[in-house]
Design brief:
One of its GO terms (molecular function) is protein-lysine N-methyltransferase activity. This is SET domain-containing protein. The chain is of the alpha+beta class and 489 residues long. Helix content is 42%, strand content 11%. It has 16 helices and 13 strands. The protein binds S-adenosylmethionine.
Length: 489
């Protein structure tokens, strides 16, 4: 992330101080004297919060009053445009409406928050959140903002197809710009901005939401404390586009990792950041975004970390497996028969996700010492290949005879998957060893380094999966199954 977007250092520090003063003046806010907001831009981490003295476990690090959360319940925008904001537990519909577009469709949680952020941002110093908004980044390192040559470093990662630049563009053009254009007084100075500038500003707000906003659950209506593992204490990470979202000043000053030491808890009136274990002086206070792969971390937040590599995944597309399966029966199989095989398959999964067998961090935010292992192929892949082979048996009596043997079926399955795994690895432009060398030598930096981490993680799973399949195949071929006996005759 480029937090200051080129802002001079002194301005960066000044903005931090203004934000902290604003935060501490909020009724009900607290900020522990032994923590400090620090400039971590030298390691591309923007601002972060550091312990200045040893902090005991369970210390409350800071308290955020719910009234300071920027969301549909607190911004003035929904009061002016109530028909656009679906009433929810946290957003009771206002009756003093000045809405001039009663027929406008209501917005989802993303577009609502984009409009709110644009409204508050364009209000400038008259927004109650201006000190907070001024420290939000204006530039992002998410792949949406990468150049085509930077994207090439991601090679064949499936992340490329998930960036969604053009769908975001379409959404902003169709759902955001028309509302701003028809209510210029609610978005001060927007009338002077051409569509291209307004679109860029809306993209910036969308990206800030992606990497800063929390999914906002209704406040608990009893004084019961949420369970510690209750989906981040009621602030869930699943972006389902329906849960209301909010920007939570100070909670979003925390950087995050898969080894972490703090947690955000919620109660009816406020949110609190609490130390999960002793945080030694000088250590960064870290939150947790969930068991995300580095690819997903990069897509949503614009960074990667070695600790997230244990949650890496790689996609194995079905066409690669199907091609290798077909090769086993090509002799004597006509296209019409293949069409019949396809028709016989009910629902075909397009691709299968391979991952490490990895545990979640413990309740103090720590990971097991042991490296993750590859635990096996996904059950759904096994089922889809079984259904495929069953269909082949039906349409091809010659192949059908051999396929009656369970051993043969398993061998065909594993051998085809192994070849598909090799094919998938070959789709990447460089070998795994080269990426490992690049990371170890520190020869790459910035976006290229992040891309190398992503593709290296994916190739490592492909390698581990190949090794795993080779082991099972070897075992199978060694075993004295019925097919082995038949082959000897
Ligand atoms: C919620 S904000 C955290 C505060 C942020 N550093 C700032 O200066 O405003 C999330 C963003 O911080 C950065 N970030 C969070 N954790 C990080 C980490 N472990 N390493 C590098 N950057 C990190 C990423 O740019 C991410 O999109």
């Amino acid at each position: 992330m480029d937090v200051d977007g080129g802002t001079a250092y002194s301005e960066f520090v000044q903005q931090t101080e203004t934000f902290l003063r604003w935060f501490q003046a909020l009724p009900g806010a607290t900020f522990h004297p032994d923590i400090r907001i620090e400039d971590l831009s030298h390691r591309n981490a923007g601002r972060g919060i550091i312990a200045t003295k040893d902090i005991p476990a369970e210390t409350v690090l800071f308290t955020i009053p719910r009234s300071s959360i920027l969301c549909a319940a607190t911004s003035s925008l929904p009061k002016h445009l109530p028909s656009l904001f679906t009433p929810t537990a946290t957003n009771p519909q206002s009756s003093d409406s000045e809405d001039e577009s009663p027929s406008s469709p209501s917005q989802d949680s993303w577009t609502s928050l984009i409009l709110i952020l644009l409204h508050e941002h364009l209000l400038g110093p008259s927004s109650p959140w201006s000190a907070y908004l001024s420290i939000l980044p204006s530039h992002f390192s998410t792949p949406m903002f990468w150049t085509p040559s930077e994207l090439l470093h991601l090679q064949s990662s499936a992340i490329i197809s998930k960036i969604g630049q053009s769908s975001a563009d379409t959404m902003l053009r169709t759902k955001i710009l028309p509302i701003i254009r028809s209510h210029p007084s609610l978005f001060p100075s927007s009338a002077t901005l051409p569509d291209s500038d307004l679109l860029a500003l809306a993209h910036r707000m969308g990206s800030a939401i992606m990497s800063y906003a929390f999914d906002l659950e209704p406040a608990p209506d009893s004084d019961e404390e949420p369970e510690p593992d209750d989906e981040n204490g009621g602030w869930v990470e699943d972006r389902d586009h329906l849960t209301p979202m909010g920007m939570v000043p100070m909670a979003d000053m925390l950087n995050a990792d898969a080894v972490f030491n703090a947690h955000i808890n919620h109660s009816e009136e406020h949110l609190t950041a609490t130390a999960l274990r002793t945080i030694p002086a000088g250590e960064e206070v870290l939150n947790y975004y969930g068991p995300l792969s580095n690819a997903e971390l990069l897509r949503r937040y614009g960074y990667v970390t070695p600790n997230h590599a244990r949650y890496d995944v790689v996609e194995l597309p079905w066409p690669l497996i199907e091609r290798r399966l077909r090769e086993r029966f090509n002799v004597g199989m006509k296209e019409t028969q293949w069409a019949a095989v396809n028709d016989a398959l009910d629902e075909v999964e397009d691709s299968f996700v391979l991952e490490w067998a990895s545990e979640e961090p413990d309740s103090t935010g720590q990971q097991p010492d042991t490296p993750p292992v590859f635990g096996g192929l996904p059950e759904e892949l096994d089922e889809q290949v079984r259904a495929f082979l069953k269909a082949v048996r039906k349409v091809n009596t010659l192949a059908g005879e051999a396929l009656e043997d369970k051993h043969t079926r398993k061998e065909i399955y594993l051998d085809s998957v192994l070849r598909a795994l090799r094919d998938r690895e070959a789709e990447y432009a460089t070998p795994l060893e080269e990426d490992e060398q690049l990371v170890a030598s520190g020869a790459v930096e910035g976006r290229q380094a992040m891309a190398v981490w992503v593709r290296k993680g994916e190739k490592q799973i492909l390698r581990a999966a190949q090794k795993w399949v080779e082991g099972v195949l070897e075992e199978l071929r060694r075993s004295d199954g019925p097919s082995a006996k038949r082959r000897r005759h």
